[in-house]
Amino acid sequence: MGKETESSTVVLKAEENVGMVQIADDVVAMIASLAATEVEGISAMAGNITNELMKKLTKGVRVVVTGRNVRVDLAVTMEYGYNIPATCHHVQAKVKAAIENMTGLNCTDVNIRIAGVKVR
């Protein structure tokens, strides 16, 4: 299990002639959150409500980056009537693909906790 910090970053590429690319863990969390909420049947991310914009976008998401590997824990609210296993599988695939395509990191785990069900 990796060390989790609020403001940690991962170095993607470091070259003397060009410079280095760093991605903050909060950015990886935001990618995961946005990808998860794009899936039909996911109502919202669950978590503590705060007033900061970044915290609103990443509530219910915990990201642990160890080297070039990422583990994501999501807490979501689902809409009533959707198949939970199928929807969660779709979320896992979408989050994994989004993180890997946008960052080049290896997403090893996408763990989902259903925190609630929204009734229309």
Structure class: alpha+beta
Whole-Å distance between the termini?
A: 38 Å
How would you sum up the major sheet?
A: 4 strands, mixed
Write down the overall geometry: elongated
Give the proportion of residues in helices. Answer: 25-40%
Number of helices: 3
Q: Encode the helix/strand succession as letters.
A: EEHEHEEHE
Low-confidence stretches: 1-6, 48-52
Mean pLDDT reading:
85
Strand content: 35-45%
Radius of gyration: 15 Å
Extended strand count: 6
How would you summarize this macromolecular structure in one to three sentences?
This protein is an alpha+beta fold and 120 residues long. Helix content is 32%, strand content 39%. The strands form two sheets. Strands 3, 4, 5 and 6 form a four-stranded mixed sheet that branches. A two-stranded antiparallel sheet has the order 1-2.
Task: Summarize the topology.
Elements: E1 9-15, E2 19-24, H1 25-37, E3 42-45, H2 53-58, E4 61-66, E5 69-79, H3 84-103, E6 106-118
Parallel strand pairs: 5-6
Antiparallel strand pairs: 1-2, 3-5, 4-5
Helix pairs in contact: 1-3
Keywords:
alpha+beta; four-stranded mixed sheet; 6 strands; disordered N terminus
Structural notes for this entry:
The protein has 120 residues and is of the alpha+beta class. Helices cover 32% and strands 39% of the residues. The chain is built from three helices and six strands, in the order E-E-H-E-H-E-E-H-E. It has helices spanning 25-37, 53-58, 84-103, and strands at residues 9-15, 19-24, 42-45, 61-66, 69-79, 106-118. Strands 3, 4, 5 and 6 form a four-stranded mixed beta sheet that branches. Strand 5 (69-79), helix 3 (84-103) and strand 6 form a beta-alpha-beta unit. Helix 1 (25-37) crosses helix 3 (84-103). The longest helix has 20 residues, at 84-103. It is elongated, with a radius of gyration of 15 Å. The protein starts with 8 loop residues before the first strand and ends with a strand. Residues 1-6 and 48-52 have low confidence and may be disordered.
